[in-house]
Amino acid sequence: MKKIVLLLLSSLILWGCSDSGPSGSETEDFDRQAILENWADNIILPAFESFAAETENLKTAANEFSATPNEQTLTDLREQWLISYKSWQHVSMFEMGRAMDLRYRDNMNLYPVNSDQILENIEEGSYNFELPSQNSSQGFPALDYMLYGLGEDDASVLEFYTIDENSEAHRTYVSDLATRIDSLTGQVLEFWQNGFRDEFVNDSGNGANSSLNMMVNDYIFYYEKALRAGKIGIPAGVFSGSPLSDRVEGFYSRDFSKELFMEALDASQNFFNGTHFGSEQNGESLRSYLEFLETTKNGESLAVLINGQFENARQEAENLNSNLAEQVETNNTQMLTTYDRLQQNVVFLKVDMLQALNISVDYVDADGD
Amino acid sequence: MDLKKLFLPILLVATAISCDVSDSDSDTDLETPATYEFTRNGESTVSFTGQTARIRMAMELNDAMMDFDNSTEELLLQMYRNQTADGGDANPFSESSLNEETKSVKEKVAASLDYFSSNTAVSAQIKSDFEVWISGQVNEVFPNENVLAEPGVAGQLADGATARFVNAKGLEYDQMVAKGLNGALMADQMLNNYLSVSVLDAGTNREDNDNGVLVDGTNYTTMEHKWDEAYGYVFGNAANTANPLPNLGEADDFLNKYLGRLIGDSDFEAIPQEIFDAFALGRAAIVAGEYEVRDQQAQIIREKISEMIAIRAVYYLQSGKNALGQESPDYGGAFHDLSEGFGFIYSLQFTRVPNTDQPYLTREEVEGFINQLTEGNGLWDIPLETLDQMSNEIASKFDFTVEEAAN
Q1: pTM exceeds 0.80 for this model
Q2: The pLDDT of residue A155 is above 70
């Protein structure tokens, strides 16, 4: 609540001292449905279809590894895990409808993993992945641990699936993890395909619960919490005072944390620009909405500013070590600078853009206990 | 907020004036000490070890309530009582010095002189409420550790990425105990016992204090010690007990923590300093033998600690209402808030209106709220209007609005 008050206050201040006020066009005049159609048909559904195909491949690779654990099947599974994990970065932000009910993101990608819980699950041989207490023992981070974190090198990892006295339980766990990822994804995709697409597109008003308002809130929440804080800020110690290298995404595989972040950054910018999934073509979007309203800040187009800031963050992040855990341990300043660049866009998106679009923030930070 | 800021200096001036006027037989101009340090013959006279110990016992109990793998009903009850079921010596704590104590949390729950010395039936009922909640955690919630909660079924619920463990009515017993102790143990002992004239001036305390008669084997007078014991229930576990405000909120899970939550809240951020200053000035007044000044400070502490508890109660009621009022209700988040709110509401019966013998909300009023929260399936079907009604009713007894408390 305080955040909202602050926000309102800062918006007022910004409004007072810059020229980002209402311009010629009114928010009512814009065809919101065209944005919703572009989002649903050219971004969300294709991204989920693509991701669902990858999670099915992941399930297949996991089953093959479980049936015949060896150097080759392990390599195949790792490769498919990374492909799927990158594909995930394109759907993670769409936490609405069925995905919200399932708490999809928390089930798919909550890290750091709880490795003790994973080992306990394997030991006991029974576990209910639907329980909130099992969030951090499943999903991509759990596979990261199972495929890279069990041993020092490939040979010692493989031993857990071959000669370990509990090898069968380990194999089952890997299969179960992939099956769960695939099944949750299937449910979300099916939900969009069976009715929700139309419901989403047709709810084109501008009330607090309208599709556009909800989606924009989900998007900014994702950008702020999952992308800015989760992937960069928390490991860099922005919220704790000192770096926490074990909080990076893909901690055990070591080499992919930057790659996963870059993928998510692209996905975030693409969504802003309405870029069709898997193509360069742009459609109706937050960007075109801002352009229609001719929203400016300090004399510059807000849409241009936002894209410029995405680019700034990307350029800064290019310099990061591919292993962000190593980055925060060796030169955390680079990581903090990347964070600062990302943070600047929180202001543009959450304050300036929301004010221009006349949308209220619908989430607040919990009080932390 | 602005009004309050204007009002404060006026209040301070008024206080200062009234001291001078009333203090006819002393020409001391007492200044508020910047730190809580008092000495006699070069040695400190400040002592509140019993309060520190009870805070630490209660913190261990809090943690143990959520230790599904190791806690038993017997262990948790021993932590509450620091005794075995048949009254024998118990060693339930991980901190060995706590095991050596004969003190316990339970003995000081609902045990103030002003409220409970001739109200032992109610005192016993309150002491037993905590035991019921502790036992409920082990007997109802622990067995359902791996069950998804639903109306009428204990188990876990998602609150963001955290799992919350609730009883069949959606309430977290651990929160009820932890937040309830703010009132039943800490506030009651402080406001209705140690800061009371009936305790401070009991027996020959005034005479002894005037003549510097010390408690055997110590460096303090009884009156000094009583005042310190009140101080100990809010600052007694601080890293720096003489200057606790810079680290306010870090000392415990109770009054200190929630006083810390007022920092940065523009509506209430002056309260921690006001409470500290009242403690420091009151203690200096005892040293100077200026008992009216002392009692004025006691009234300030009563008002501010009571207000803080009420602010938290309303804050959690409103947070819970907002979480339930969403298009898809966040049950886990809401029930966690409302369980904390339950504890703070329960604590309201131990508050104290300055210059009276009354709490801001009576036990009957508190019980009315609790009944509403626990009726039927409890939090699962609590109407949002009820949460608003409770918030309004609580705020109406104090000098703040629901909106100020909610943000």
Answers
A1: yes
A2: yes
